[in-house]
Structures are given as C-alpha cells and as structure tokens.
Amino acid sequence: MSVPLRWQDCNDYSADTNADASPEKPKLSSRRAARRVASVRTLLIGIALGVLLSVAAMSATRALGGSSTATLPLQPVAAVSPLKVTLQSASLTRHLGYATVTATAVNTGKHRLNGVEAVIELLDDRQNPVQVESALLPVDALPGGGSVPFQVEMRDDAHATSFRVNFRQLTGIAAR
Question: What would be the CATH architecture of the domain defined by 85-169?
C-alpha cells in the first residue's frame, strides 16, 4: 500500500536533490530595462500633451465665442387658421453653430389635435427665412386646452436676427 506524500515532504525532496540550483528570476539586461523606462516615459508625456492640447482647444473655442449663448427676439405670428395652437414661453439659444428653440405649444381649441408639427424659421433682418426646420410635438395628440413643452435643434445661420414658430398638422392644415 502506498502512502500519499505531504506537500512539505515534496519540498524537502526537491531541496535535497537540487541543492545547487537556486530559483532566481532572470534579470533583464540593462538595455532592455532602459528601453522599457523610455517607452513608459514617452507614453506618459504623450498622454500629458494630449490632455494639455484638449484643454487649450476648449479654452480657445470659448475665447472665440464658440460656446457663447445668445437669445434672438421672438417674432409674433398672427393666427389665421381655424385650428388654435399658440406659442408660450419661447426662447432660442445659439451654441457651437446650432440654434435650439425651447417653447410650449398650447391648444386653445376644444378639440384634440393629432400629429401637430412645430415649424421653426430663422429670419434675417428683412424677415426673410434663411433656415427652416420642423419637428413633431412629443405627444401623439394635443388635447383641447392642453399644453406640451418641446425643443427643436437646427443649424444656425449667422444672418438670422429673429425667429418665428408656426404649427401645422401632418394632414397639411396650418395650426396657428
């Protein structure tokens, strides 16, 4: 019958048979070690330069007015349609070449309106449209007397001095 060896017995056995061999880690040559240090140093310098350049680019963009926020005056629109959707608390902000209109649409009629779309026009100083964008309101149906906030983003135009908001239904009926 054989008896299993214990772990300590194995270590004792290997120490007895290999007394001359010592388990040391192989040392790297000085050239290899210098290369590793240099590559790590180069990597860290590259990361630091990337961070510095990113911060410099962001501050240059701010200095040139890229992150400035401006508000254009709202041009009132006369209601000429039997559908009654009015605009409430509208504002336009400019940021990095885009204009964002944030407003609230109110259905002043008694009937529910389906598929209402907001049409934003950026106007020049002679009230001519220079940019137009439309977007559906974030609800399927705008109930009678109900209101819904919405936001429309569009490319900005440097010639725009004001904006106008119109409403229409997907059926093509203007809802002013």
Answer: Sandwich (2.60)
